[in-house]
Amino acid sequence: MKIGTTHLFVPGPTPVPEVVRRAMNVPMEDHRAPDLPDFVLDLLADLARVFRLREGRVLVYPGSGTGAWEAAITNCLSRGDRVLMSRYGQFSHLWVDMARRLGLDVVCHDVEWGEGVPVEAYAQELRADPSIRAVFVTHNETATGVTSDVRAVRQAMDEAGSDALLFVDGVSSIASLDFRQDEWGVDVAVAGSQKGFMLPAGLAILGLSEKALAAAERSTTERCYLAFRDMITANDVGSFPYTPPMPLLHGLRASLDRLLDEGMDDVVARHHRLAEGVRHGVKAWGLDLCALAPRWYSDTVSAVRLPDGVDGAAVCRIAYHRYRTSFGGGLGKVAGRVFRIGHLGDVNEVSCLSALAAAEMALLDAGVDLEPGSGVAAAQAYFRQALAAEGSRPGPWWSATAGPRLTAVT
Amino acid sequence: MKIGTTHLFVPGPTPVPEVVRRAMNVPMEDHRAPDLPDFVLDLLADLARVFRLREGRVLVYPGSGTGAWEAAITNCLSRGDRVLMSRYGQFSHLWVDMARRLGLDVVCHDVEWGEGVPVEAYAQELRADPSIRAVFVTHNETATGVTSDVRAVRQAMDEAGSDALLFVDGVSSIASLDFRQDEWGVDVAVAGSQKGFMLPAGLAILGLSEKALAAAERSTTERCYLAFRDMITANDVGSFPYTPPMPLLHGLRASLDRLLDEGMDDVVARHHRLAEGVRHGVKAWGLDLCALAPRWYSDTVSAVRLPDGVDGAAVCRIAYHRYRTSFGGGLGKVAGRVFRIGHLGDVNEVSCLSALAAAEMALLDAGVDLEPGSGVAAAQAYFRQALAAEGSRPGPWWSATAGPRLTAVT
Amino acid sequence: MKIGTTHLFVPGPTPVPEVVRRAMNVPMEDHRAPDLPDFVLDLLADLARVFRLREGRVLVYPGSGTGAWEAAITNCLSRGDRVLMSRYGQFSHLWVDMARRLGLDVVCHDVEWGEGVPVEAYAQELRADPSIRAVFVTHNETATGVTSDVRAVRQAMDEAGSDALLFVDGVSSIASLDFRQDEWGVDVAVAGSQKGFMLPAGLAILGLSEKALAAAERSTTERCYLAFRDMITANDVGSFPYTPPMPLLHGLRASLDRLLDEGMDDVVARHHRLAEGVRHGVKAWGLDLCALAPRWYSDTVSAVRLPDGVDGAAVCRIAYHRYRTSFGGGLGKVAGRVFRIGHLGDVNEVSCLSALAAAEMALLDAGVDLEPGSGVAAAQAYFRQALAAEGSRPGPWWSATAGPRLTAVT
Amino acid sequence: MKIGTTHLFVPGPTPVPEVVRRAMNVPMEDHRAPDLPDFVLDLLADLARVFRLREGRVLVYPGSGTGAWEAAITNCLSRGDRVLMSRYGQFSHLWVDMARRLGLDVVCHDVEWGEGVPVEAYAQELRADPSIRAVFVTHNETATGVTSDVRAVRQAMDEAGSDALLFVDGVSSIASLDFRQDEWGVDVAVAGSQKGFMLPAGLAILGLSEKALAAAERSTTERCYLAFRDMITANDVGSFPYTPPMPLLHGLRASLDRLLDEGMDDVVARHHRLAEGVRHGVKAWGLDLCALAPRWYSDTVSAVRLPDGVDGAAVCRIAYHRYRTSFGGGLGKVAGRVFRIGHLGDVNEVSCLSALAAAEMALLDAGVDLEPGSGVAAAQAYFRQALAAEGSRPGPWWSATAGPRLTAVT
Questions:
Q1: Which of A46, B143, C163, C288 gives the lowest tally of CB atoms within 10 Å of its CB?
Q2: Are residues B60 and B91 in the same domain?
Q3: How far separated are the first and last CA of chain B, in Å rounded?
Q4: Which residues of chain D have a CB within 8 Å of the CB of B238?
Q5: Which of B18, B397, B408 sits opposite D237 (nearest CB)?
Q6: What number of other Cβ atoms are within 10 A of residue B139's Cβ?
Q7: Shared-domain flag, residues C334 and C380
Q8: Same domain, D190 and D312
Q9: Measured between CB atoms, which of C33, C243, C321 is closest to B320?
Q10: Aminotransferase class V domain: from which residue to which, for each copy (chains A, B, C, D) (predicted)?
C-alpha cells in the first residue's frame, strides 16, 4: 500500500511540471496535418535558444540520450577516426565503450572518479597528434556529480590549432547548467528529454554547429534511422521522416515556454542556489561529495560519499521502502560507496529540504553517525539568506497589493 | 514565475492521489446509461463502509460540506425545533449561525477555542430539557485543531434518556479519524469530498441512521434540491434526481478503493502517526498548539499558537510567496494568532517533514525565536522509531526478494 | 468489452473539449491563496459576458442546475408569493413542482408538449392580476426540443405594466442559443455547467439583474447554503463562502476563453447550422419533431417523434448496446414516444452525421421504415452548402500557404 | 477556431483508448526502483502473447518503427549479406532503401503497387540462390492497403530448403491483423506503438525467434543503441540499458490488458468487420481500392483510387479544413491518386460511418461523381447484419436485467 507521493530525487527523470504534464495529455493527431509544420518549425527554433545556438541547428529523434550519443558518432565520424576521450564516471565510461564498439580509434584518458575532463592532458595530446578528429567531453558526469570546463577544452583545442570537432554530452547539463554552444565552440551537443527539459525520457536531442553539419555530409558510416540528412530534409518543411512522438513534442513546447519565460540565466542561477543548499546540508552531516574539489561541483546532482562500512544500496533501499523517497545509487566504480541526490528540473527549496530530511533518516538507519536535522538546518540557513536577497528585489509577491489581500484571509 | 510544485498543507483541500486524479479524468457519459446503476449502487454501499454505517444509508449531493450541513437541518428538523449546539471554533460557529438562519431554536454553549464539545454541559441541558430535538457536535474543529468525543455525547444523551437526533459534522474527520456511525449512535453525519476522501470539493455527503431517515419523512421544512426523499427515490434504482458530477463520482470510486484497501483502522493509525510527528516538531520549537490539552489534539490538523507580536498572516504570506508552501491561516477569533498545518489525505512522513521545514523558515523570517531544524529533527526521531516498528513486521518491502534486486542497482 | 469511444449525443452532459478537459486536470491548491482573487474576479466578469449581462452580476455555486432553480426562488421570492408559470415538458414541469414545494402560490398554464411558453395567456394573466411577483419561462425545454420566445414574454410584461421579476431557465440555452439578459430584461437566469459551457455537471450558475439583487435583500425565505448575500460578500473580495470546486472553475476559465474567442454570435450561428443539418436528416426519414412548428425548433436538442408501435426506449437501448451511441430517451409524458439527439457543445458537422448514421441503424432495427442513409445524405447536402458558403470567406485554411504545404504530403 | 474534435482516420497514429490515455498520465518515477522489474517482466511476457510468440523474446526500444527496421538489420545481418526483398508501396520501398544504405546486398523484386509479396518469384530466387541470408516481407503495406501472405513465404522458404531468416514488417498488422510468429516461422517481426497497440509513436518493438537471437550473436555489424545484447542483458533482470519512456510503458500495459481481454481472435475479427463495412461503402461509391484483388485487401487501411482528374491531396485538404477529418494522403508512386482511410485501433462501427460520411462530402466537393449517402447506407446495411448476428449470441447487453433498466429511463 503506497500512501503519499513517492518523493523523487534521482538525477533524471525529474519531476514533470504540471503545465508540461497537461500539455502532453493530448489525443492523437495526423502528423502530416497542414498546421503541423508551423508548430514544428517554432519548436525547433526555440529549442536552439536553450542550447544558445544560432549557427547551426537542433535535431530531435524518438530515442534516449544514448541514441543521441550514437547519432553524434555515426553521422559526424567514420570508422577508424581517431578521437580523444576521457573517463571519470559511469556515463563517460559508457560513451568510450560505445565509440570503440562503433569502430572509432579512441585515445582515452582515465581520470580519478570525482574529477572532470583533464584539460592539460587533452592539450598535450592535441599538440602531439594532429590526426585527432574529435574531442569528447562529458559536461556533467551524472554518476559522480562532476561538472567539467567545456570552455577550457575549446581553448586548448584552439591553442593547439586543432580542427577536430568538439563533442559534448550535455544530457544532465543542458537546460539546467550554464551551456553556450556557439560561444564555447561546441560542434555536437547531446541532450535528452528527461533531465533539464523536465519531460519523460523518449527524445534524443542534438545541437549541431555548421561544422558538424558539414562533417555529417562526409561521414562514410552507414546509418539510416538516426541519419541527420533524412531528418534535416524533413525538418526543412516542418516534418519528420517518420511518425513523431507527438505528446513529447507538445510537452517540449510547454517546457520551452517555461524555460524561456524564466530565462536561461535565471534557470542556471536557480539550479546553483538549490545545489548550494544541498551542499551546505551534506557538509553539515560531516560527509564529503564524490566531486573532489569545488570547481567540479555539479549544480544538478550531488553524489555523497558514504563512510566505510555503510552500504549505499542500503541507504537507497531504506529511503525508498521506509520513507517513500527515491535517491540515485552508486554506479560502476562507486557502486555502494555513494548515493546521489538529484536537484534538477521542477524542484524548489522546500523540495530540496525534504530530500535532505529523508536522506538524514535513511543515513541514520543505515548506520551513519550524524546529527539529525543538521543538514536541513544548514540548508535552511542558506536558503533563507538567498531568498531574502531575492525578495529585496521588487517582485510580484512583495508588492503592496499582494500583502493586504493575504492579510484579509479569514 | 512559479518554479516547483507549491507544497500544500492546508487542512483541505488535500493532495489528490495520482490514482484518484487519473480516475477523474474521464470523458462525459450518459448519466442515464444502463450500466450506470450498478456503478452507483456499489459506490454508495462502499461509501457507507467508510462511515462504518450499516443501519441506514449515505447520500451524495453535488455541493460543498456547507450544503450537507443545510441538508441535515432542512430534512430532519422543522422550523422552531429546539436544538443543542456549541461553539469552539470558526466552523462550529458557522453551523450555529446557519441553524439560527434556518429557523431553529438554538441553545448554544460557548466554549473556549482550543477545547471541544462540552459533554458535561450537554448532559445537564439534556436532563433539564426534554424538548431538545437534536444535539450537534463538530467532531473535528478545523479552525483550532480540536477533536471532540462524540461517543461521550451519545452516552450523555442515552443517560439523559434523550430521544434527540445526534448530528455530527465530520467534514474534517470522516475517512481520516476514527469514526463509527453505528457504534456511536450518530444519526446524521456530514462530510465533504475535499478532506479525508482526497478529492476536489464538490460533493456533499451525508450518513443517515434509520432514525434520521424516519425523521426526514416528518419534517415540515420546505426543501427540494437537497431533499432526501427525491435523492432516495432515484438512488433506489441507482440513479440521481439530476445530472451528477460524474468525474467526482469516478474519483470517489478510486478513493474508496484505496481507503478500503488500506483498511479504515490503518488509515486512522497513519493519520495519528503523522500528526504525532508534527506535534513533536511543534513542541521542539517551543510553541503550543491551539488545542489546550492532549485529549483535544486533532490528527488531521495542527493549529499552532504564535508568540505575541508575531502575525500569523505574515507567516502564511512568507511561506506562500517565498517558500511556495501553503499553510492555513487563523480564522475568526484566532485570526492572526495561529497558523495551521494540515496533515490529512495523501500525505506521508517526508511530506510532513517538508511542512515542518518550510514552517521553520517562515516562522524565523516572521520573527519567531526557534532553533532551525529543531522541529524537523524531533519529527525525524519519532518517525524513525515509528517506522522501524512498522518495518519489523513482515511486509512486502522487507522481503528477501526485494532486497537483492535493489542491491543489484548499477 | 467496450471497443471504441461511446458516441455521446444526449442533450447534456455534452462532450468536453480537450482544452477544457486538460484545464480541469489540476492538483489541489489553497482556495485562500493570495493569487486566487484575481482569477475569480476575472472569471466572473467573463462569465457575465456570456449572459450578455452588464447590469447585475453572476453567481456560481457548487451544485446542479436544479440547485440554481432553487437558489433563484429562495433568494428572490418569499413563501406565498404569487408566480406565473407554464408547463410544456419535463423540465418546466419539475420547476413548477419545486415552486409549489417551496411554498409559492403558482398560477400554472399547461400547454401541449411540443409548444413553448404561452405568451398570450401570460399577457392576459398579467393584465388581470397585478399581484404576480414573478413570471417563469423555460427558455429551452430539453425534453421536447422547444425554444420559447423570452423577449416576447418581457414585452407582454411591459405592456401589462407588470413589475414582476422575469425568471428564465436557460440551462440548455445559455452559451449555445441566442440569449441576451440585459436586452431582454431577464431578472434571474439559471444555467448549469454541463450543457453549453461544455463542462461536467457540478456548477449551478445564475445571472442576476440589479432588480433581482434588490429583491433578494427583501426575501424572507430562509436559506443559507445558496444565499446570494453570503456569496456576494465573498465574491466581492474574489473569494467564496466555502471551498469551491477548483477543477470546474479552471475548466470554466478554459470554456469561457473558447466561447469568447469564437464569439457568442458565431457560437449561436454554429449551433443553428448543426441543428439545421440534423433537422434535414429527420425530415428525410419522414419523421416529425416533437416541436410542433418551426418557431419552436430548438438548436440544441431535437426530440424525434416515433411512429406508433415503435418504442423509444428500444431505440435508445439498441443504439447504446449495439452501436455504442447514447441518445436521450423520452421523459415524462413523451416517455417511449420520442428519442432525443443532443447537438450542443463541442460538436461539429461530422459528429452530427455520425449521430444520424447511428440513429438510422437503431431506428431500422427497432422497426421504423425509413430509407437507409437518407438522413445522412440530406444533412450532408445541407452541410456542404453551408460550409462552402463559410469557405468562400477568406479564412486561414483556404489561404495560399496552407495549400502547397498539404500538397507536399508524401 | 477549431470546434469539435478532429476526426482521425489516418492509418496510424490511431485513436488512443481512454483507459490507455489515462494510464500514460503518470508522474515520473525512478526507473531503477526495486518494484520496476516485476512490472517490466510481466509486460514483456504479455507483449509476446500478442505476437503469438513463445519460442523467442520481444524487445522494446525508445524509437519509431523505422528504428525497429534498423535494429532488425544491424543485429541479425552483416554488411554484404545477400537478402531477398520486394517493393509494392512506399513502406516496402523505404525498407529496401534502408537495407541498401546499411550495406546489404539486396535482390529486389518490384511488384505493381496494389499487389503484395511475390511468393512465386521469391520461391524461384530461393531455389536458385542458396546464399540468401534473409527474406523480407512487408506484411501490411500501409501505403496501398495491401496485406501479404506471410505463411506462404515461409512455405516457399521451406520448400526451397532455405535457411534464411524471415523478416516481417508488421508495423500496421501486429495487434490488429492475424499474425502468428511461431506458427508462421517468422524470425524477426517489427512493430511500432502507434498502430494496433493504440499508443502514441515512440516505441520500436521487435519479436525475435531463437534463430534470430542466435544470428544476432554472430553479426559483425557495428551497433550499440539498438544492440539486442545490451537490451537482453538488462531485460533479463527486468531493467533497461538506459532510461525507458515510462509513460509509454504504462500505456502499453493498459493496451495489452485490453487486447488480451478482448482476445486476439476477436481483435482480428473486429478489424475485419469494420474493414468490410468500409469496403462496402467504397464499392457503393463506384470507386476501386488500390489493392487489386480481394486477397490483398487490408483490414487496417483502405486506400481508395480516385477518378482521373481528381486530386487526392485536395480530398484530404478539404476533409481536414472543411470537415475536420484527417485521412491519409497518397504516398510515393500513388501520391495524389489515392486517399487512405485508416480503420484500426480503438474504432467501432459508428466511427467508420463518420469516416465514410466525411469522405463522401470531401469527394463530392473535390468533383467526384457519387451518390451522397450511398457509402454510408451500404456500410450500415453490412454493420446491421453483422452486429445482429453478434447480438444473437448471449451477451451482457441483451440480457434480461439490462433491458428493464433501460426501459425504466424517464
A1: C163
A2: yes
A3: 37
A4: 405
A5: B408
A6: 28
A7: yes
A8: no
A9: C33
A10: 60-283
Q: Are residues B148 and B235 in the same domain?
A: yes
Q: Letter for the amino acid at C346?
A: D
Q: Measure the CA–CA gap between B118 and B125, rounded to whole angstroms.
A: 11
Residue B404: what pLDDT? 27
**Among residues D105, D104, D98, D40, which one has the least CA distance to residue D69?**
D98
CATH number at residue C353: 3.90.1150.10
ipTM: 0.94
Taking CB atoms and an 8 Å limit, are C18 and A26 in contact across chains? yes
B387 shares its domain with B336 = yes
Residue linked to cell 546464399: D131
C349–D320 C-beta distance less than 8 A: no
The residue from A262, A291, A316 where one domain ends is: A262
In angstroms, what CA-CA distances link B345 with B267, B319, B358?
Answer: 9, 21, 19
Structural domain count of chain A: 2
A8 grid coordinates: 523523487
Per-residue pLDDT reduced to its tens digit, A225-252:
999 999 999 999 999 999 999 999 999 9
Give residue-wise pLDDT tens across range A63-122.
999 999 999 999 999 999 999 999 999 999 999 999 999 999 999 999 999 999 999 999
Half-sphere exposure of C76 (CA within 13 A, CB side): 30
> D342: domain range?
7-12+263-390
CB < 8 Å to C25, chain D: 25
Residues C212 and C330 in one domain: no
Q: How far apart are alpha carbons C304 and C343 in whole angstroms? A: 13
The rounded distance, in Å, linking the Cα atoms of A23 and A255 is 9
- The 10s digit of each residue's pLDDT in A16-47 is 999 999 999 999 999 999 999 999 999 999 99
Describe the crossing of helices A65-76 and A90-101 by its angle, rounded to 10 degrees.
Answer: 40
Known binding-site residue numbers of C for substrate: 340
What is the residue-averaged pLDDT of chain A?
94
Mutation target among D94, D350, D364 for the C interface, most CBs of C within 10 A: D350
| DSSP-derived 3-state class of residue B167 | strand
Give chain D positions within 8 Å (CB) of B397: 34
Is A209 a member of any domain? yes
Whether residue D396 lies inside any domain: the answer is no
Same domain, B227 and B340: no
In 3D space, the residue among B67, B60, B74, B75 whose CA is nearest the CA of residue B244 turns out to be: B60
Helix residue ranges, H only, A18-160: 18-24, 36-50, 65-76, 90-101, 119-128, 150-159
DSSP E strand stretches across C220-356: 301-305, 325-329, 338-342
What is the Cα–Cα distance from B144 to B321, expressed in whole angstroms?
24
Can you name the residues that pair with A338 across neighbouring β-strands? A305
Q: What is the CATH number of the domain that holds C125?
A: 3.40.640.10
**Residue at C325 is within a domain:** yes
- Facing residue for B377 by CB, picked from A261, A372, A402: A372
Q: Is A57 annotated as a binding residue?
A: no
Distance, in Å, from the CA atom of A317 to the CA atom of A331, rounded to the nearest integer, reads 15
Q: Give C358's Cβ-side CA count (13 Å radius).
A: 33
B277 and B176 share one domain: no
Instruction: Please name which of B274, B335, B325 lies closest in space to residue B303, comparing C-alpha atoms.
Output: B335
Dig out the grid coordinates for C266 from the structure.
458565431
- Tell me what pLDDT residue D398 has: 31
Question: Under a CB-based contact definition with an 8 Å cutoff, are residues C334 and C321 in contact?
Answer: no
Helices D349-365 and D264-285, interaxial angle, to 10°? 30
Contact D75, D221 (CB under 8 A): yes
**% of chain A beyond a pLDDT of 70:** 94
Average pLDDT, chain B: 94
What sign has the CA pseudo-torsion C137, C138, C144, C149? Answer: positive
Please compute, for residue B330, the number of CA atoms within 13 A of its CA located in the half-sphere on the CB side: 22
